[in-house]
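User: Please run a holo structure prediction.
Assistant: Happy to. Please share the sequence and the ligand.
User: Here you go; the ligand is iron/sulfur cluster.
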Amino acid sequence: MVYEIDVDICVGCGACAASCPISAIKQKEDKYIINLDTCKGCGVCESTCPVNAISEN
Ligand code: SF4
Ligand code: SF4
């Protein structure tokens, strides 16, 4: 199980990247993306996003 960021909803605040315990979220231009190869599916980032742009995939 991994999580994904919907870039159409993401406002680029960076809160998710700061919350990920294994630094699996990186900035890409003015949005953020989750590295699906390293994400361990803990869900911490999902609960951190203020606009609910992150969901299980
Ligand atoms: S689910 Fe956990 S490991 Fe995966 S990107 Fe979010 S905080 Fe990081
Ligand atoms: S916390 Fe949500 S809005 Fe902020 S950068 Fe992450 S996905 Fe985008």
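The longest strand covers residues 25-28.
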